[in-house]
Every structure is written in structure tokens, then in C-alpha cells.
Amino acid sequence: MKKLIITGAANGIGRATLEQAIVDGYFVIAVDKDVDALNTLQQTYSASVLETQVADLSSDAVIKGFIPSLYERHATIYGLINNAGLYHGKSIYAYSDKEVDEMLNVNLKALVYLSKDFAEREMKHEAPRSIVNITSVAGEVGSCDALYGATKAAVIGLTKANAWNFAPFVRVNAVSPALIHDTAIYDTIPEYRRAEYARQEILKDPILPSGVAEVILLLVGEGFRHMTGKVIPVDNGAYPR
Q: Which residues 6+ apart lie within 8 Å of 41 measured at CB?
């Protein structure tokens, strides 16, 4: 049974990806700071398919030590899905210094350390492995939340660079969602921005977390074994680019 790490696994896209991954036959290592939600997941799924890890990815110590500690118990892991992220939906002028640091750590720095530490350990096996990063349309066309948009743009750059860094054994791709319904972020996006996203969509079936999860798992799997360094939009055709 192949093992997948999924960060931000307790809710939204992360939870939908976890649920689909288990259906697809993966063993999931679910990472989140939401203790109650992780406990609910652990009560829902057996230990034969799910391991939960409480981790606050805004902490430097946590993001630098997480993968090394995980490999004390796991000899090898097939894939890493970097899904955890923050969005505040406010002007850069309204950010505190603490919020700036938190956003940079969760949305970018965590991906740097988790990805390199994972790849370093898995490349020695000289076998196919996969990383999928979750960016956003905001990283491509901008955001009213400048820090969110900046970090998501950086994730795109990191994805492309690490596709080179980790070749030929670890593929690195990204999924770029637009307006995703039934998530905590959806309720935080200002109404005028939600209206703009919806106006741009040429397909009108609302995008749900499960729809993004399906694309993530396609990318992580062997069916896309010839693809690396790519950004795949899940956006109902919005913002052609």
C-alpha cells in the first residue's frame, strides 16, 4: 500500500483528497493543527489506512523537523501533497508582523522544507515518487490579499524549480484552483471577488473540494508519470492563460 502525506488534511480540499486517496487504496498520513477534526477522521477510518499527525506549520521548528521525525517510523513514502494554506482576504496594510510571518511559513516555507526533506530521503530509492503542491489562481492573476497572492505565485516558481532539483525520480506538479465552494476560504473571500471569479467561469457547475481532489490524485499517480513541473488549473475555464 503506497503512503501519502497530506497537509491541511482535516478540512476542505485536504479532507476531500484524504477521503478519495483512501478509496483509491493509499495509506494516508494526515497532517493538520485541527486536533478535533483529526480525531474525527481517526474515528472514521482504521489505523490500517490512516495515521494522523498534529502539526502547526507556522512554526519553524515544526516545518524543519516534521519529515525527519516521520521517517523514524516510515521507511519510505510514495507522495507528498502540500495542501495546507492560509488566506485572510484583507489588505496588506491590515497585516500584523505576526500574520506576515505566519502566512510566509504556512504557504511557502513549509513547502520548501517538507519538499526538500521528502525528496532527499526518497531519491535514494531511485523509484518514482510524487509531490503535488496546491497553489491558486491568485498566484497567476493576483489577489486582493497581496501576501496570499505572493505566496501562491512563489509556490508556482518552487514547483517548477523543484521539478528540476528532484529529477529524475521525484515528480513535482501543482494544482491551481479558482473559486472552490464549501471551504473555509470561500467564506473569507470578499463578495466582490467571489462575483468576479464566478463571472469569469465558462463552466457553471460549482467547483467543490472533491473535484479538486480528483485532479490532485490524478497528478500524484502513475498515470501522469511523464508530467513534471506543470501547473494544472481547476477553475471552470476562468482566466484563460
A: 9, 10, 15, 18, 30, 50, 52
* pLDDT tens, residue by residue, 194-204: 787 788 888 98
Task: For residue 110, give the amino acid letter.
Answer: A
The C-alpha cell that represents 23 in the structure block = 478509496
Residue 188: burial class (beta carbons within 10 Å; 0-12, 13-18, 19+) = middle
The residues facing 51 across adjacent strands are 29
Q: How many residues does the chain have?
A: 241
Q: Is the pLDDT of residue 241 over 70?
A: no
Question: Which one, of 72, 82, 73, lies nearest residue 116 by Cα?
Answer: 82
Classify burial at 35, counting beta carbons within 10 Å of its beta carbon; exposed 0-12, middle 13-18, buried 19 or more.
Answer: exposed
Contact 183, 13 (CB under 8 A): yes
**Does the reported pTM lie above 0.90?**
yes
